[in-house]
Amino acid sequence: MSAEELSRNALRVYVRLVESDRPLGVRELARDLDLPVSTVYYSLKRLEELDLVRRSGDGYVIKKLVNPEGFLIIRRRLIPRLLVYSAFFVGVTIGELALVVVAGLNPDRLVAVITSLIASLILLSEGLISRKKYL
Description:
Elements: H1 8-19, H2 26-33, H3 37-49, E1 53-56, E2 59-62, E3 71-74, E4 77-80, H4 81-103, H5 107-133
Antiparallel strand pairs: 1-2, 3-4
């Protein structure tokens, strides 16, 4: 699914439905996302046209699971890929700090610790910002 196919609101509706463990109605989606009912209804119709959601007796449910660009779906949760990369750099930082404890501090290790720490913080903040866009 690309940004060109869906508006930001339709993508927010889709994400909310993906993360829900039950069918959701138009009014409930509107309340959860702080959007007008008409906007949610229009977004749901667009999602139905794209064959991504379907109406059930109790509301709308996901018909086809598609990863929005830049995200992974893990156990019905959208996780920005940037958060995964941030976790990698946290691991690198911990490894470098362990090496400093065992072998001592030198300029190369100091640069590696600072660089990996800064990278993890930047990726964490950008990942949280991208997550917030869709919720």
